[in-house]
Design brief:
Radius of gyration: 27 Å
Distance between the termini: 71 Å
Number of strands: 9
Structural class: alpha+beta
Helix content: 25-40%
Shape: flat
CATH architecture of the largest domain: 2-Layer Sandwich
CATH topology of the largest domain: Nucleotidyltransferase, domain 5
Order of helices and strands: HEEEHEHHEHEEEEHH
């Protein structure tokens, strides 16, 4: 997926690339600047700058009006054009990676939103193809997060002495990803492990994504539970219905004594 950012490479060149991180709580744009040809393990990608801007709401907020989703990215595209030199815009690739928020809206809404995004980014002036706007699954989301953290800690590549890689808990709005290094001989369940290779240094990691356990999703679930319990308690504590044959003061709403739960108005 990242090959548009890395090829073609020129020795000693400064490159730019754009990644939209379309999360459940908002859309973020990363305008990356990196150098190539410097030698060493980072010869192909030596990060210089990651310029970040976030807007709200996220793409998933447009599930009922998906045709408007693409236009919501316009402020981020305008920001990118201020950061990328004008003569490099046409050759600067753009990727959009949607995460848990879009995984929760359903197939038809997801496809319609990505279609709108495709139309918007295709006219941005940057290098873009519709297949570069994708929905990441939980495994991919976790792996990208793990690689990012360990790249910044300089713990991916072979060096002397080697730096130990670290694990991450990536708490998003709609999901949470857990990724941590494991011994090569680890007997993780099928689908829960991955081997990565960076310049000859191999990493074995355990990874698991939990959809619906992100910060916003958990908050909404807790609120729904509180509302549900409140409605049940309110129904239990509701005053009894006065029998139509009761005394006049009872019919005015002053019911004396306990009433049977099956009392009804006749």
């Amino acid at each position: 997926m990242l090959w548009p950012l890395l090829a073609p490479l020129s020795l000693g060149a400064t490159r730019h690339g754009i990644v939209f991180d379309a999360g459940s709580s908002g859309s973020r744009i990363h305008v990356y600047t990196w150098k190539t040809g410097g030698g060493g393990p980072k010869d192909a990608f030596d990060l210089v700058e990651d310029d970040l801007l976030k807007i709200k709401p996220g793409l998933s907020a447009y599930k009922d009006r998906p045709g408007e989703a693409g236009a919501s990215l316009a402020p981020l595209v305008a920001h990118a054009k201020k950061k990328v030199p004008a003569d490099a815009v046409a050759t600067t690739p753009v990727l959009l990676m949607a995460t848990a928020g879009l995984r929760m809206v359903g197939e038809s809404a997801k496809d319609a939103i990505l279609k709108s995004v495709c139309a918007e980014l295709s006219t941005s002036g940057f290098l873009f193809r519709c297949e570069w706007a994708t929905l990441l699954d939980g495994r991919e989301e976790g792996l990208y997060g793990w690689v990012t953290v360990n790249y910044l800690l300089d713990a991916l590549y072979a060096q002397a002495p080697p730096k130990e890689s670290v694990g991450i808990i990536d708490l998003g709005g709609g999901s949470v990803q857990i990724v941590f290094p494991t011994p090569a001989a680890s007997k993780a369940p099928a689908g829960y492990s991955q081997r990565l290779d960076f310049g000859g240094r191999k990493h074995d990691v355990y990874l698991k994504s939990h959809l619906g356990f992100g910060l916003d999703a958990a908050r909404n679930a807790a609120l729904d539970l509180l509302v549900s319990k409140h409605e049940v308690r309110a129904a239990v504590r509701a005053p009894p219905v006065c029998h139509a044959r009761a005394r006049p003061e009872e019919r005015r709403g002053v019911c004396h004594g306990p009433m049977k739960s099956n009392s009804i108005l006749h």
